[in-house]
Every structure is written in C-alpha cells, then in structure tokens.
Amino acid sequence: MFRNYLKTAWRFVKQNKIFAGINVLGLSIALAASFIILLYVINELSYNNCHTNRKQVYRVLNYYVDFNNLQAGTPYILAKTLEDDFPQVEKVVNEKPVSLKLKQNDEFIQVYQAIATDSEIFDIFTIPFIWGTAQNNLLDEKNAIVLSREVAEKLFGNINPVGKEVVGQINKEEQIFIVKAVFENLPPNSTFKAKCFVNGKWTINDINRSFRATDADVSWNYNFWRTWVLLSNDSKVADLESQFRALEKKNMGDKPNYNYSLQNLSDVYLGSDQVLNTGMKGNMSNIKLFLAIAVLILLVASFNFIILSTAVSTGRAKEIGIRKTNGAGIHSIRNQLLIESMFLTLLVLPIALTMAWFSKSYAGSLFQTKLEIWDSNLSAYFIVYLSLTILIGFVSGIYTSYYLSKLSVISILKNNIRKGKSKPYFRSAMIVVQLIIFCSFVSGTLIIRSQYQYALNKDPGYHPKDIILVDVKDCAGYASFLNSIRSNPNVIMAAGVMEGLPMQGSMSTMYPHFQDKEQKVYVEGLAIDYGFLKTMGIPVIEGRDFSEEFGSDLKQSVILNESAVKQLGISDPLGKKLGYQTIIGVVKDFNLHSIHTEIPPLSISLTDRYIRQVAVHYKQGTIGSLVHALESEWKKIEPDRPFSYMSIEDLIQSLYASEKNLSTIVSIFALFTLLIAALGLFGLTLFVARTRTKEVGIKKVFGSSEKIIIYSFLKGNFLLVVIASFISIPVTIFFMVRWLNKFPYHTTISWWVFAIAFVISTVVVLSTVLYHSFRAARTNPVKALRYE
Q1: CA distance 279 to 283
Q2: What Å distances lie between residue 32 and 307, 353, 488, 663, 674, CA to CA?
Q3: Crossing angle, helix 706-740 and helix 424-457, to 10 degrees?
Q4: Which of 719, 676, 679 is nearest to 298 (CA)?
Q5: Looking at per-residue confidence, does 188 or 689 come out higher?
Q6: pLDDT at 422
Q7: 763: exposed, middle or buried (Cβ count in 10 Å: 0-12, 13-18, 19+)
Q8: Which pLDDT band, with edges at 50, 70 and 90, does 691 fall under?
Q9: C-alpha angle 387/393/399, rounded to 5°?
Q10: Helix 330-367 crosses helix 657-691 at what angle (to 10 degrees)?
Q11: Whole-number Å distance between alpha carbons of 242 and 255
C-alpha cells in the first residue's frame, strides 16, 4: 500500500511540474534559512553539555551590596572556606587567568587562556587526557604545568612531553616548568576555556604586587578569582545559599559587603545577562528572536504549499471520485494525500541542506559567531532537521487531505467542484498572513536601521571623528612617545587615558549623598592624563581643567560631570570635597559608554600609572601619513611590540555592530519571505488564469477590453496588500516599541517605514499577478471558448 502511495505521489509531481517546482523552491529556501537558524540555536543551547557533572557543578557569584551589581569574581580564601565548612561540597577550586609565555626555539610565545588553579579542576570539569592522568596532585608542585594538545604540539611536536621541561615567563618572571600531562583541546561548546594549567599560587604574588598588599590569599576583599564547586547529588542549593549568610557575617562583619550565591554550570552561558565580567556568554533574547523568524518563514512556506496544493488538487476531484466509487475510504485517500505532501518535502531536504551548507559561512558573520558543525551535536542536528521537514510536510498537507477526502462522489460526478475558486476566502486569508509577515519584516528592518543610524549620528558630547586611540599599555617610554605625537604637524592635540571613549569597561565608587549621608550614589570613574578633555572636545562648563601648573591636581583634584553633581546633591560644587579629592571643575554630560546605557554620574581623575591608550586628534584627511609617522616613532621606543591603534569611528561602529547585523538578518529573511510569497502568488495566478480562460473569452466576446480584464485580476490582489499593510502596522509597533525601549536613547517610529513596506509589497504582488493577467487578457476569444 505504502509503495503505491509513493508511486501515485511521484506521478502527481511529474504531472504538475510547474506547481511542484514552485513548492520545492519555496520550501527549499524556507528550510535552508531555518536550518541555518537551528544550527545556531542548537549550538547555543548545547554549551557545557560536554561536562559530565554539569548538573552538580556550580559557579559562586558575588553580589556587591554597595554597588548593586552581580559579578563572578570571588576571593581566593573562599574555596578553602567552602571545603572546610560545608559537607555538601565534594570538590571546590578557584581559578584565574594568568599572563604566561612559553619558550619555543629561543623565542617566547604568548599562551592565551592560561589558567592558574589547583588539581581539583580535573575532578570538576570533564577534561580528557592524551598523556598523563588526572591525579589528585597533578598541579600541587608550583612548577607543574599541564598543556593542551594544541600547545603541546606547538612546543614538542607529536612526541609525549610528560616529564619534560619548558621555560616560561609568568607574571614577567622566568621559570622552568615540568610538563605533568597533556589534555585534549576543550570542545567549542565549553564556556570554561583553557590552553594550559599552572599552580594557582602564581596569582597570589601578582595581586599582592598590584595592590601593594601581603594578604591576597586570606583577605575577603580581593575578588579576582572564579570559584567552582562540585556538590553532592543530594544537596539542596537553596539551603546551601542560605548558609552563606552566616559565612559572610563571620568573615566580613554584621553588614557584609558581599553576598554569595550559586549558579549552575548549565546556566552560565545563557543565564548570565546580569552578571558582570563573566566572560563568555550568550543571548537568550537573540535565540528567541531568531527562532521566531524561523517559525514565520516556515509559516509562509507552509501557507504557500497549502495555497498551491488546494488550488491544484481540486483538479484531482474526478480521480478521487473514481477511487471512492471503487471502494476507497476517506482514511485511505487522506493518507495518500498526506504522504504526497511529506514525499515532496523529503525531496526538498537534500536541496535545503545543500543551500544551508553553502550559506553557512556568510550567515556566521551575520550571527557574529562561527557556525560550526559540532560532532557532539550531530544526533541533535539529524533529529531536529528531519523532524522539522516531516512536520512541515504533515502540517502543509493536512488541510488539503482533509478537504479533498471529504468531497462527495455525487458532487464530483455532477461537476459541482468550483475549480480555481475552492475556498477562496481561506486562500486569501493565508496570502494576507504572508504579506503581514513580509510587511512587518520590512518595516521592522527599517526601524532597526533607523536606530543604528541614530546611534552613529547622535552627538556623544565629544569629537566622534578624526580621533585615533593608540595602544600604549605597559610602554616604558610613554612620555617620550606622547611628546613625539604632539610634535607631529598633523596632530591637533594628544593625551593619555586609561581607556578611551566610548568606554567598554567600567570602574566605579560609591559616595555618600551630600544632603542625605545615609544614601549612597554609584559614581563611575575615568582616569586621564593632562589635556585629554581638550583633545576629545569635552567642555568644562564650570571651574577649570586639570593643569600641570597645579601640582596637587594629580592626587587631590577631581572633575565631575553634570549628572554626578545633580545625583550627589551638590550645590556650588567647586571647592567641595569628594572623598579625599577637591572638586575643581564640572564638565558637560557626554556618553561615557554607548547609547545602550544612560549617562552615569562620573568622576574624572588624573593618573600617571595606568595610561593604556593615547587619544590623538588629527587634522582631517591626514590619517594615512599620520599613522605611518606614529608607527615609525613607536618602533624607536618599542621595537619588539607591534603598533596598534583604532579609529574612534571604527570603535563606535563596533559598539552598534549587533544592531547593524540584526537589521541585515531581518532584511534578508524579509527578502526570503517575499520571494516565497511571490512564488506562491505566481503559481496561484497561473492556475487561476488557466481556470478562468473560458470566462475571459466570454468577457472579450461581450466587449470587455484587455485593461478591464487585467484590472479584474489586479483588484483583488491589491485589496489583499492593503489589508495586510494596515494589519502589519500595529503588529510592528507592538514589537518594535518594546525593542526600542531597551535603549535609553532611541529614535522614533516614523510613518514612512510603513509606507515603504506597502509600496514594496504592492509592486512585487501586482507585478507578479500582472504577467499572467496580461497573458490571459491577450488570449484569442475563439481559443478561449474552445478551452477544454
């Protein structure tokens, strides 16, 4: 029976090549786009599945009470405290990235993702070994090192390096390490990244030196380590977190500055939106958005399939009548039509996979991630893709099979089936839904692009162009290099800064409100060198700028922005004390970060220790010669370091790259939606034109002109466009207002975005219909009346 169904399905496809071809092309585009999105979604949802104990592994989070924010940094002492005081904790370890270089052929190479930790790390995370074993004391010796396959092959080739020595530089000190083991490269879907491991004690001296301290290993105030715990199976996380309150009071007093909580390893990637400095993390909002886009595209393709299938399949009424007369039951006919539908979608599957494969690299650049086929997810890809294909075939064919199988034999034999007009309202409704989706995509794309342009063009309160930021971190000859920059005739001004504008990081302090001492105000900080405000074009509206004429400015003076003065409740701020510093000036508010965040209260201080960048304001049109000259000066001072810089225009554009890419993604899928819908309209109009051939002939005999006949075809479709365009307006506004409200500063939704969507959909729909209506109108009435 099933074999006969397949034969009949193949015969139907061959007899209706045009309509089958249109369905195949539309479904191929829809499935290919959906497969790309699902590849992204499956990869995003599979992070940390590679770790066997992930359901029992937790990261300790640290809530900063005064600053009202959540971070992943914890003190070094916390790991030992949890191990000693909490029996639910089976294993615990802290880890911290460390600066490490290893010697290869008399040259030191930088090892990125070098982690300083303890031996328990191998019991908590699933880290398979190639050479050596995960012994309990693997990292106990201070000169022990465990390498990844990538680093081991780079240093030693394909030989077993266990027991061999390797010279390294750690925290700028040269040491000899002993290789204890080599582990397999961690899979890409692990948020825990490591290229090698060293003993955790290497981090203690580094922190002590940076903060001129001696107690980094026992203090509760240096939150620079991440703490991971492996809990027993019967542990209750809520109970353990409640016990942390006693731990905090015991070690930090009755009003502890920090509150600890636990986050499961499975939630680290997609559940860290509110966690600062968390490292690698995803975006659940993007996953939901792209899934919604995939569903909408598949919906358009399914509607297309139903529209064409119901139109074409009404021509099979006599076949169904004969089969019923010969004893075929409703279920048999329904199964036949369903199998035909699913057969067609399965024919589409390899085509869609091929299209998805060739578009994968381009799609990866849009999604801002590398869309790889991960071996660990192969079964998930297969199950999801095949299931989706079968589901589309089933859903698309369910209506056709139900409607045609219910036709009565008498109606069929009396020729009461209205060809080309079967359920016209239902088909029209599906066309309207397709056009609503398209119009919403187009207007949404235009709104997103408007927000992107608004972000680029909004006045940030400083020079948004003709500025470059030169990297000078750890440059011993900073002063000499800065003087050489200022002496260049193409340079207007130049000055150093800890991090240039717009800042991507942050540093902050809590200050008491000037009127209500119990209230604390969160104030961000900006550390600069002399002349930075003038270089960036930030006006001082009250008081004065920092000046080398005042020796006290370096450590005792501070400048506030307008928001800081207002939120701290300061009247007549000049001369007032902010902490141990004196307020000497007030600058006009400017966007410290991107427009994703509001302008914060800001304190600006001088520094001579933490200059990492030099902002260079240059004469317009001189960037080429300037960069060449600066690179030559840099080579004189730092011959072993590459010259690195970024223009402020590129930096600003990078901050809004997600909006630009989102606009591109939505516009591409809008194009797919329009293409699929246009294909459906093309096929439907062809079918309707054929079934109305005799009607057209009679109209021409009675004097109807070609224009009137063409108008009769266009009128109904134009009405569908108008209805869809009006319905799409509130739909678009509902979703886009919610999206725009994520930005403290955003554009407004203009009427023209909906007008453009209407014009595009009108042009495409009417031009699609016009071709067949024109051919039908030009038909010879004699031939038309002889039709069939």
Answers
A1: 13
A2: 21, 6, 55, 20, 15
A3: 50
A4: 676
A5: 188
A6: 47
A7: exposed
A8: low
A9: 135
A10: 150
A11: 16
pLDDT digits (tens, 9 = 90+) for 374-427: 888 888 899 999 988 888 888 877 777 776 666 665 555 555 555 444 446 777
Of 185-199, 438-452, 661-675, the one with minimum mean pLDDT is 661-675
CA–CA distance, 480 with 240 (Å, rounded to integer): 56
Q: What does the pLDDT read at residue 410? A: 58
Contacts of 284 (CB under 8 A, 6+ apart): 270, 271, 273
Q: How confident is the model at residue 289 (pLDDT cuts 50, 70, 90)?
A: confident
Tokens of 467: 């500025």
**How far apart are alpha carbons 652 and 501 in whole angstroms?**
9
Token pair listed for 359: 């578009």
Answer yes or no: is pLDDT of 562 > 70: yes
Do 775 and 689 touch, CB atoms closer than 8 A? yes
Average pLDDT over residues 209-221: 86
Question: Exposed, middle or buried: residue 236 (CB in 10 Å: 0-12, 13-18, 19+)?
Answer: exposed
Backbone angles phi, psi at 333, to 5 degrees: -65, -40
Tokens 């780079």 -> residue:
154
> Which of 588, 516, 603, 583 lies closest to 543 in space, CA to CA?
583
Tokens coding 191: 């948020």
In the chain, the amino acid numbered 641 is R
Closest CA to 79 of 112, 113, 48, 124: 124
Whose structure tokens read 């880890």? 95
Concatenating the DSSP letter of every residue in 167-204 gives EEEETTEEEEEEEEEEEPPPPTT-SS--SEEEETTHHH
Q: Which two tokens stand for residue 222?
A: 């240096």
With H, G, I as helix, E, B as strand and everything else as coil, classify residue 607: coil
Tell me which DSSP letter residue 603 carries.
E
SS3 290: helix
Torsion of CA 384, 386, 387, 388, to 10 degrees: 80
Which residues does residue 495 pair with via DSSP β-bridges, in sequence order? 615
More reliable by pLDDT, 434 or 210: 434
Write down the pLDDT at residue 180: 93
- Residue 524: CB partners within 8 Å, gap ≥ 6? 506, 507, 508, 592, 600, 601, 602, 603
pLDDT tens across 179-196, in order? 999 999 999 889 999 999
**Alpha carbon distance 72, 224 (integer Å):** 9
Look at residue 690 and tell me whether its pLDDT is greater than 90: no
DSSP letters, 512-570, are E-SS-TT-EEEEEEEEE-TTHHHHHT--EEEE----TT-TTHHHHEEEEEHHHHHHTT-
- Backbone φ and ψ for 196, nearest 5 degrees, come out as -165, 160
Structure pTM? 0.82
Q: Which is it for strands 520-528 and 602-606: parallel, antiparallel or unpaired?
A: parallel
Look-up of token digits 């006006």:
539
- Helix (H, G, I), strand (E, B), or coil: what is residue 720? helix
Q: Cβ(335)–Cβ(5) under 8 Å? A: yes
Helix (H) or strand (E) holding 226: strand 226-231
Share of residues in the chain with pLDDT > 90 (%): 45
Q: What span, in angstroms and rounded, lies between the C-alpha atoms of 312 and 218?
A: 78
DSSP 314: G
Query: Residue 237 is encoded by which pair of tokens?
Result: 């996380």
Q: How far is the CA of 41 from the CAs of 105, 301, 376, 422, 657, in angstroms?
A: 43, 21, 14, 39, 20
pLDDT of residue 186: 93
Spell out the residues 6+ positions from residue 382 whose beta carbon is closer than 8 angstroms to its own: none
> How far is it, in rounded angstroms, from Cα 597 to Cα 592?
9
Give the count of beta carbons closer than 10 Å to the beta carbon of residue 331: 10
Task: Tally Cβ neighbours within 10 Å of residue 443.
Answer: 28
Give the Cα-Cα-Cα angle 206, 207, 210 (nearest 5 degrees): 85
Sign of CA dihedral 273, 277, 278, 282: positive
